[in-house]
């Protein structure tokens, strides 16, 4: 049987990638250092690992797979111990019937494949992956608390939980609530939920999704805006885990038919983190989404939010006004609340009375009066806003303008001497004018009340540890109207960024002060396109895409990410 070294030599000579002189030099270095020939060839720059993998794949008829974006299943990766995975540089990918598919860097290591077969009792299929990617995947899968969670799942599964191990959900009225409550307070379930929360905070997750499926309970974390599969809990433990979440969130454990909202606090690494909890009845049980609200992430003022200079100057000028309405727009999860809370923190002084009406109250801030909307008892945005206007406020924040009544009261409050902050769901800043008019606000009231319009998005920040410069074709740059010179970066993924290529997020903002000419245009019912054209030509308006391109030029994000989160102008 030919060794991998022999095969590499034969393939490289046959494909004319190396001449004899280069090969002899590489063999000499390999003999001195005792490292594999493929490593020497790559280190010496004689061939890239990508090209080498492609040649091996072609000659040995083995498919290649890049692992950077691969979603691993902890139940499959745990079939082979960490020690063996590192020894042979391989990692299990999937198991279908009695066949286990494994990613390996040395496809001719017969000893490795025999050991995997003997250990798992499965037939082994292989795919080729770069050694570095396999090692990163091993670190990611066996580090960061995954082993502890799997151990807790195993402990919970060993116990006779008493609610049945069938994959079919029992009818709600047949559930033994006493047994479920008792089980949910048992050590393995408590430990499992605690580890779920701990790992989420260690991985910087903003949300935890606990989703019942037909055969398991799936847990996903939202990290830097993207959801990642983390692990699956056996179906027989579903009711106990969900009951535990209800107990710590102060939800009604007997109610499974309607959505519920709750919250709880945890202490993590010396700081308190609030979790806002939402439950929703689904086909296979109640789905939970827990949003982590870390008050330490709030900054005091705009300067620490990372906005570009021009939009930040516009924002600072607007909040210096004594009255009027400031609207922040953008989709869910675009950072609107963080921006508004940071502004309120900046304006929060003893001489001002600041009151908010929110649904729900996300961050509790000392010195600010915060009102929680409760529609079931008649306390909606409109009635809450009417009441707080009698409390002599200086600054008002409305969580969201959802209906015509709230919009009308907010506009009139801003004209009566209050500075009003609120959010709207629109695609860009200028569209919020037509949204207000569509809600029934008279154009003359909208024109008089508006001080500033802004739209916000969050771009994933390219990983500083593994980012490398790349070339972008001239045609691509012309297509997206990127006109200035810049160095573009891309990251393949490393341990620091959990193999995603991104770590953290950066805010992009378009902000526009409403001047007298724009007010005249609103009064005359000019189109949004006309107002945008005026803003771009006369006001120095910087669009979301332009601001995103600024972040690309600064090396903070990738060009692909900037294009993904911003609409084409």
**Percent helix range:** 25-40%
Radius of gyration using CA atoms only = 29 Å
Coarse shape: globular
Instruction: Give the averaged pLDDT, no decimals.
Output: 82
Strand content: 15-25%
**If strands are numbered along the chain, what order do they take across the biggest sheet?**
12-11-13-14-10-15-18
Structural class: alpha/beta
Largest sheet entry: 7 strands, mixed
List unreliable stretches of 5+ residues.
160-181
Number of strands: 18
Helix run count: 23
Q: N- to C-terminal separation?
A: 60 Å
Question: Topology, please?
Answer:
Elements: H1 4-14, H2 20-33, H3 37-43, H4 49-60, H5 74-77, H6 82-88, E1 90-96, E2 99-104, H7 110-120, E3 123-128, H8 131-142, H9 146-158, H10 177-184, H11 187-202, E4 205-212, E5 216-223, E6 226-234, H12 238-248, E7 260-268, E8 271-282, E9 285-294, H13 309-319, E10 324-329, H14 336-347, E11 354-358, E12 369-372, H15 381-389, E13 395-398, H16 404-415, E14 419-424, H17 431-438, H18 443-449, E15 450-462, E16 467-470, H19 474-479, E17 488-491, E18 502-513, H20 516-523, H21 528-538, H22 544-553, H23 559-565
List keywords for this structure.
six-stranded antiparallel beta sheet; 23% strand; 569 residues; 23 helices; alpha/beta
Structural description of this entry:
There is one protein chain. With 569 residues, this protein is α/β, with parallel strands linked by helices.
